[in-house]
Amino acid sequence: SASMSGNGSPSSSSQEGSDSFFRSVLENVESVYLSRNPTAKSILELVQSADGGERICYDHLAFRTFGVDGHGIDSMASFFLDYGYKQMEELTFPAKKLKALWFSPPPSVSAANGGSRIHGPLPRVFISELLVDQMSPQAQEIIRKYVEISSSGYKYAALASALGTLTWKKPMHSEFQQLARESEYAAWTLVNGYALNHVTISTHRLKSNLRQINSLNRFIEENGFKLNSEGGLLKVSPDGLLLQSSTVADSMPFRFSDGAVEPVPCSYIEFAERLVLPQYKNLPNDEVKEFHRRDGFEVGNADKIFESTSQGQVTRAA
Ligand code: OOG
Ligand code: NI
After folding, report:
1. Is the minimum distance from the CB of 256 to ligand 1 under 6 angstroms?
2. Residue 301 Cβ < 6 Å to ligand 1
3. What rounded mean pLDDT belongs to the chain?
4. By alpha-carbon position, which residue is closest to atom 9 of ligand 1?
5. For position 18, which CATH number holds?
6. Do 248 and 316 touch, CB atoms closer than 8 A?
7. Domain range holding 165?
8. ipTM value > 0.90
9. Burial class (CB in 10 A: 0-12, 13-18, 19+), 13
10. What's the 298 CA to ligand 2 centre distance in angstroms?
């Protein structure tokens, strides 16, 4: 039909219309994140200015969920799938009782390729869920209580993320502590809900020497920020092509329903360098596109990056 282009995708004008709504939602998700996480905000500003005021591209956005009764990965994924994302591989973390899926973005409409951050090339999305059935009866009781309170909240995961609100009422401090003893991830999700867990700066798309992740790590530390040291600062995939690092999460005072006000870990910022795949190693630098580089995620890297919100990392001396 006239509204469809030859390859069966919507015409560019309708795609641009939905793209602008989609990006407005992401802009709000990001602005909630920046308002609660001063370290992430400062680092984005610092890296952009040190890179000569060039644009920043996001490699991916990440969210956490409770995998029970519809509140898991699907609750947040549906928004991205509706806007053209495709489900890719599953990653499992048996010791942490977690599973994750990642989603690849639709090609950005041409105008977006010049923009920065949320207005640049669309990022991958990484969504994980706690395997609630595998938790202790006591932890399950707490988690099931709050997802029941939220009732249909899981249908509005993206809305909750963009508004910066929980879909359930605030827990008691004792419930948070009980979950934290069993799973830092569970405790984090109870108080942060669908809030953006992190954005990841795509280092190879920077212009200056910061495009090498080791230089960026040094620069971040020289500026007084603490990096997640779990398994070493730099996380390297077995093929050597996916390099990742992250800060430790900022903590913010949280008012629990019993009146206690205690700091809880919020979000962090990550850095990822994707190297050129072996079959493209002879391409001239200026011809290398994102699809010539290592794609996807790596269980061994992710397992350590999850620790960016753990008490051990958050309270560790710099
Ligand atoms: C996600 C940790 C994993 C990655 O890029 O592998 C990750 C989380 O902390 O929720 O971000
Ligand atoms: Ni990540």
Report:
1. no
2. yes
3. 94
4. 306
5. 3.10.180.50
6. yes
7. 12-314
8. yes
9. exposed
10. 10
